[in-house]
Design a protein that fits this description.
The protein has four helices and ten strands; from the N terminus they run αββαββαββαββββ. The chain is α+β, with helices and mostly antiparallel strands.
């Protein structure tokens, strides 16, 4: 699936705005070993958003805070354990530093069910991707909320975007890189 011309303009804006975001090796890089998305006990309740909601998870989630969904604002995402990582960003063709929440931690916090196998992601520009839960359980896949230490504006791919490690087999498929994510459906 290809993005529209407007999305291509967004990629150029992202490239222009984030071109200088490369940096030294990550201080708090995510662990390299893949892991499963399983919580030891029930996840901590997700507080209702105080700020503008930026992400909604629905479907096979159990830790709901808004009817049948789990809704996050940036404050709640940033309050979770965050990591800093550097990875090759294929759209600007250079290493960049991102800060965010590990996807494995986000899915565990949402309380995905043991039967969940896929996550459909939707972006503000109506772009969609579907990934396996197993691929998102890699403890280096990041839901970035910051680039170069600053929030990512919508015009530059924010406020949240999916980041793959440089050696990710899944991440080599550029059609699976998704930014300006606004919702996920866990199946």
């Amino acid at each position: 699936m290809k993005r529209s011309t407007a999305a291509a303009v967004g990629v150029l804006a992202l490239a222009a705005g984030l071109a200088g975001c490369g940096g030294p090796d990550a201080r708090n890089a995510a662990p390299a070993a893949p892991a499963t998305v399983k919580a030891v006990g029930p996840p901590a309740p997700v507080p209702a958003p105080i700020g503008k909601p930026v992400l909604t998870l629905e479907g096979a989630v159990t830790n709901r805070n808004d009817g049948g969904t789990v809704v996050f604002d940036l404050r709640t995402l940033d309050a979770m354990a965050t990591v800093t990582t550097s990875t090759y960003e294929p759209f600007v063709k250079k290493d960049m530093t991102f800060i965010g929440v590990l996807m494995a931690d986000l899915l565990a916090r949402a309380g995905i069910t043991a039967a969940a196998t896929k996550v459909r992601m939707h972006a503000l520009d109506d772009y969609r991707v579907e990934l396996r839960v197993a691929d998102l359980a890699d403890r280096r896949v990041l839901l970035a909320t910051k680039a170069k230490g600053a929030p990512i504006p919508v015009g530059k791919g924010g406020p949240i975007r999916l980041i793959f490690p440089a050696d990710s087999t899944v991440g080599k498929n550029q059609d699976l890189w998704i930014w300006s994510i606004d919702s996920m459906t866990v199946l």
